[in-house]
UniProtKB/TrEMBL annotation:
Pfam families: LANC_like. The keyword Phosphoprotein does not apply. Keywords: Metal-binding, Zinc. Belongs to the LanC-like protein family. Gene3D superfamilies: 1.50.10.10. One of its GO terms (biological process) is carbohydrate metabolic process. It comes from the Eukaryota. Zn(2+) binds at C279, C325, H326. GO terms for molecular function: metal ion binding. GO terms for cellular component: plasma membrane. InterPro entries: 6hp_glycosidase-like_sf (IPR012341), LANC-like (IPR007822), LanC-like_prot_euk (IPR020464). This is LanC-like protein 3.
Length: 405
């Protein structure tokens, strides 16, 4: 039966050579053209809301990312200048935001914007102390156990997101922006919240969370990215809590249904209709297992990651657009992740094929129209990040979601 969610993958698989003409001589002009068209279509007014996920801040991050790639050195200053002016307007917007919780949110609010501002200002040679200080101050907001009614621990707006932003800052600025006590107390809140929820709901495993009443498993709002952040900071955990995190990772490994995970705990996957997205499913959960593998060196985690990649090769040519959240670039990032984990060129080949598909007629005619062309997660800004990373696969990383720090 035909799958409604994806195009059939008609590409033959890797046979020992990469796709010709996909090097920087052809790839770079596509990136430059796409950036130009994004910049031409930015709203004349507004767009500062929506954070890194859907707002202008995501465009600023994309410009920063491109500016850091040597292939685009002749555009570096132009891209950075534009990034600075865009992120300044976003910072002003969130400085005026009254709602503390929105200010502390990573992908949908202020925390991510302040983090991006610090990275961009630093790259542009400007003083970045102010956005960094503001970012640090937001730590207090997300420490109370139930600071968000909808669920306080997930990636987009919750505590894991705040930790994720701090991780990106550590990577890009080379400094740990939070004090050890701050990191410990946020991790403690995440753990305590997960233990309490699990006890209250009588779950047969140690840590569980919900977001708007749903027990998500995937990267967007679910267990996998929460665990990924706890693993990223495992040196700050008590030994017993560390064990609990690893038990939970193994619990999630065991929820696999044929190379995929259902969006919600306990659901049974319908094959014709399954979600193979970064936000829900294998292409996002893969990052947790990558992190687990990098820390433990246990081959079983790498094997799980590889299975995520196999399913994504079959079902990752998504009809929901070119983006990284639930689009083709998000699928292709799994191959770049697997390339970095294994060094196997097969994965570069697969990423190249997905990049090629993005400019095909079949994709243009058959995929959903974009609501926001410039969004980092749903629109073309994330696609640009992917195309840039395809030119530098040894440094490639899903935007703002590193497992290599
Ligand atoms: Zn999504």
């Amino acid at each position: 039966m035909e799958n409604k969610r994806c195009f059939p993958n008609r590409f033959s698989d890797y046979k020992g050579s990469l796709v010709l003409g996909q090097g920087s001589d052809l790839g770079a002009p596509i990136v430059i053209r796409t950036i130009d068209s994004i910049l031409q279509q930015l709203p004349a007014q507004g767009g500062q809301e929506g954070g890194l996920y859907g707002g202008l801040a995501g465009v600023a991050y994309m410009l920063y990312h491109a500016s850091q790639c040597p292939v685009f050195s002749s555009h570096k200053d132009t891209y950075l200048r534009r990034a600075v002016s865009i992120i300044e307007s976003c910072v002003l917007y969130y400085d005026r935001e009254q709602d503390r919780e929105t200010r502390a949110s990573f992908l949908l609010g202020g925390a991510g914007v302040y983090a991006a501002a610090a990275m961009i200002y630093k790259a542009a040679g400007q003083d970045f102390k102010k956005p960094l200080d503001t970012f640090r101050e937001l730590c207090d907001v997300c420490q109370p156990l139930g600071f968000l009614e909808c669920g306080s621990d997930e990636l987009f707006v919750g505590r894991s997101g705040y930790l994720c932003a701090a991780l990106v800052l550590k990577q890009k600025l080379g400094i740990e922006v939070l004090k050890p006590d701050q990191i410990r107390s946020i991790c403690h809140a995440i753990l305590e919240s997960g233990k309490q929820y699990s006890r209250k709901k009588r779950k047969p495993f140690p840590l569980m969370y919900s977001y708007y009443g749903t027990e998500y498993l995937g990267a967007a709002h679910g267990l996998s990215s929460v665990l990924q952040m706890l693993l990223s900071y495992q040196d700050y955990l008590q030994p017993a809590d560390k064990d609990l995190v690893w038990q939970s990772v193994d619990f999630l490994v065991n929820q696999e249904q044929n190379c995929n995970w259902p969006p919600e705990l306990g659901e049974v996957i319908e094959r014709e209709n399954e979600l193979v997205h970064w936000c829900h499913g294998a292409p996002g959960i893969a990052y947790l297992f990558a992190k687990a593998y990098l820390l433990s060196k246990k081959p079983c985690y790498l094997d799980t990651c590889i299975r995520c990649g196999e399913l994504t090769w079959q079902k990752g040519l998504l009809k929901k657009g070119p983006g990284i959240c639930h689009g083709v670039a998000g699928s292709a990032y799994v191959f770049l992740l697997l390339y970095r984990l294994t060094g196997n060129s097969k994965y570069i080949y697969r990423a190249q094929r997905f990049a090629e598909f993005l400019s095909s007629e079949e994709f243009r005619d058959g995929s959903c129209t974009l609501e926001s062309i410039y969004s980092l997660y749903e629109g073309l800004s994330g696609t640009v990040c992917f195309l840039v990373d395809l030119l530098q696969p040894k440094q490639a990383e899903f935007p703002l979601f590193s497992v290599f720090v």
